[in-house]
Amino acid sequence: MSSIKILLADDHKITREGLRSLLEKQQNVEVVAEAKDGRTAVSLAHELMPDVVIMDVSMPDLNGVQATRQIVGRLPNVKIIGLSMHSDSLFVTEMLKSGASGYLLKDCAFEELTQAIHAVVAGNTYLSPSISGVVVNDYLHRLAKVDLTESDVLTDREIEVLQLIAEGNSTKQIALKLHISVKTVETHRRQIMNKLDIYTIAELTKYAIRKGLTSLEK
Questions:
Q1: Sheet holding 52-56, edge to edge
Q2: Which CATH class is domain 4-143?
Q3: Which of 10, 118, 129, 177 lies most in the core, judged by the most C-beta atoms within 10 Å?
């Protein structure tokens, strides 16, 4: 049996090192690379074609939800397992909507992570038992009520720009990161503000934090 190739994406180096150390002790598992942010994870996934990406949900520059969407959109055979401190239904359902095959809480036992890896490689979905109820309840709620989230209102590129604005990047810095013109960034910012009816950077930042696009901890 060939080894399961794993890409670790987490902005905390100590977390990546701990996961690598534990995973490399497992048979038929190989950690092929590490990424400290979502944008690097997307690039490495395209370069290395791992079997599984273990993806932190809250990362700077490009969060785990958007990184998952970009990877799965182009590489549908790559399985994503979301890893987060958050059991909130917003984080869980947004990751699953973006194409993740699994979602674990960071305080789970390592044995649960290995179980999740083998489950998603086999084509199944894996959720931490402690959050399965959250997903079911959210699903039932959505059946009863149309729920528009920011991903229904904003385009993927606008969500990227919103996260970068909230993280304090200037218009020029955003243009460089996304390889687009300053004018295009300004257009995106104006469209974001119009769609959300929010017209200050401070309020945009609060909105991004509330929606889980970025975190005060970063």
A1: 29-35, 4-9, 52-56, 79-84, 102-105, 126-127
A2: alpha beta
A3: 10
